[in-house]
Amino acid sequence: MPQVSAPYNFVPLNEKVFFPPWADLVSHDVPFKKGLSGQIKLEITAESPIFIRKPYEKGDAYYTNAKGDKISKEFCHIKDEQGNKRYYIPGSSIRNMLRSVVEIMGFGKMKFISESLSENKAYRDMANRTLYDVAGSRDIRMGWLINENNTLVIKDAGVLGNLRNRRNNNTKNRPKNYNYRDLEYFGRIYRNNYNILINPNTTLREKYDIYNKYSNKRSATNFIETDRKTLVLTGNINGKRNEFIFTTPDYCNNSYSVSKNAWNEFLITNKDSDNWSFWKPLFNAGKPVPVFYRLNNGNSTVKDFGLVVLYKKIYENSVKELIKKQQPECDDPKLDLAETIFGDVDYKKIKGRVHVSHAFSNNANVENEFTLILGEPKETYYPFYIEQEGLNHQYQVNTYKTFNDGNIAGRKRYPVQHIFRPSDIEPEREDNQQNDQGNVSTSFLSLSRETKFTTTINYHNLLPEELGALLSAMTFHNNQNLRHNIGLAKAYGFGKINITIKNIEVNDINRYLCSFEKKMNSFTTNNNLGEWIQTKQIKELFAMALPFQGQNRRKLKYMKLSDFYRLKTQKKALPVYSRFMNIPNNLLQFNSKINGQVNCIDSYQEIIKNVKNKLSNIKSKIQQS
Known about the structure:
It is a single chain. The longest helix has 25 residues, at 600-624. Mean pLDDT is 84; it is low at 164-185, 218-225 and 430-438. The chain has two domains: 9-110 and 326-594, no CATH class; 122-314, no CATH class. Helix content is 28%, strand content 20%. It has 16 helices and 25 strands. It is α+β, with helices and mostly antiparallel strands. It is elongated, with a radius of gyration of 31 Å.
C-alpha cells in the first residue's frame, strides 16, 4: 500500500492582497521623508551540500541531455588571472529567494504563472470514475465527424461495438453481414504484428500501414468497406486490445450538431495528439473522421467526443482560473508589497530599490558528483495540488476536490530538511525507470557543507516597514532556528543555508521587524484574519523552514511513479505541512516582535526627532548667550 510522501508542500494562498498605500509614491529620485538607504552585509553558510548551475562553457565538466545539449555540471564561478575558480551564488538567486518569501509574508498576489498554467488541462483519469465518467459510460456511440456547409456535425454510426482482434477466429464474435475474408486478413495482421499493433508507441499511421500491407482493400481514406460496414483502427493506450466496426458514412441516418464548446474541448485535448495529426488533413479535405461521442440529455447536440473510446476530457478550470477565483485581486494593476520593494515584472511600472550582489566564497570545496532524478507529478495531480477537505488521520478523503470544483493548495515550496546523508539522496526507482534514467536525471558537482559566502544588499529609499519586510524575509522574522534553501535538488536536502546579518544589531533589526509586523497586523485584523504572526500562511511558511529533529525523512521523498495512481484509488491526499510532519505545537509558537518593543520604529524615530529638536534648542540658547 503506497504511503503519501512528497519533498514539497504548499503555503495556503491568501485570498486578500495587501496593497501598500504608498506604492504609487515610490521614486528613485524623490526620497520619502522617512526613506532609508544603506547596505546590509550578509554571511551565508551552507549547512548541506549546495549547487547552482552555471551556463555551459568550453572546458566545463558536462553531461549531455536527451536533446543532445551540453549541460555544465559545475557550480557558478568566475576565474581569476591565475585561472583559479571563484565560486559564487548569483545575486539574482538570492534576490528571487527573498522575494518569494516577501510575497508570502506580505500577503502578495500570486501572478507569476507560466503560459501553460493558463490553459485548461486534459485528463483521462481511470482512478476516479466520478470525475472521469467516460470510462464505463453506456452512452458512448460511434460516429463520423464532418464539416457540412461550414457546420460541424457527427453522423451516427451505431452503438458502441468492437471486434475483439485476438478472438476473431471465433465466429460468435464476428459482426453480422461482415466479410469474413477481411476478418481473416485482419487476423493475419494481428498474428504477425500483434506486439507492434498493441504497443502504445505505435502511431495510427503505422497501424494503417501495417493493415494495408496485408489487405487487398486499399482506399484513399484507408478504410475497408464491406456490406455497409467499415473497419476503423484507433490509436493506442496502455491495455488497448479492440478495434471497431462503424456503419459506413453514406448509410448513417442521424446527424447531431457539434457545439462550439464541444469542438473547443476536442481541439484542446487533441492539440498534441498523433491521432489528430493523422486525421486532420482528411478532415480539412472534407472527409469524415471516425469518432466516439456522447449526446446531451436532450439528445439533440453532442456533449463531448474524441478519437478513441476513452477520449480525454478537460478540467473546467485552469490553474490560473482557480487562482483568480480564490484570489480575485491577483490581476489587480496595483502593486503589492513585493512589487513595491523589488519592482514589477520587467520593471514596466517601477524599478526595484533593492540590489543584491553576487555572494562569493573563499573556502569552497567541490563535493563528489551526484546524479539524481528530479521527477514529480504534474500540477494537475489534484491529490497534492488541490486543497482537499475532510482528510482523516490516514490522509484519506471521501470525495476528491479537483480542478473542476476545488481550490489550489497554495504556493509551492520545498521544506528544509534537517539532516543530509548519502542514503537520503538516492531516489526510489522502479525497474522500468532504470532504462529511462538518462532522459530524466541530472548530474552536478556540488560544493560541500560549511561553504561560506559573503554578499552585500544595497537598498535605496525604503520605508521602515519595507526594510522590515526585507529583514523579515532574510531572518524569518528573526527566528534563529529557521533556514532557507536555495539552488538545485532541494528535494534531497541540498542547498540548506543559514543567513547571518553582520552589520546591524539585533535590537535595531527587531525595531524594523516591528514596524513591518505592525503594518501587516493592521491588514490582517481589518480583514478578520487575526494576528499576522498566527495566520496559516505564516505558520506553514515557518514550518517548512524548520529543520526540526523529529522530521520524518520518508515523508519527504519522491514517490514511485506507479504509486501516484494507486494513491488515487485509495483517495489519499497531501495535507498541509505542519500536520503532515506532526510538528509539535510548541515549535510552531513564533514570537511577535511588537510585544516588549519600544513602540516600534515609528515611535523610535519620533524619539530621535525629539532629541534632535532638544539639541537644536540647546544649541540655539548657547548661541544666544
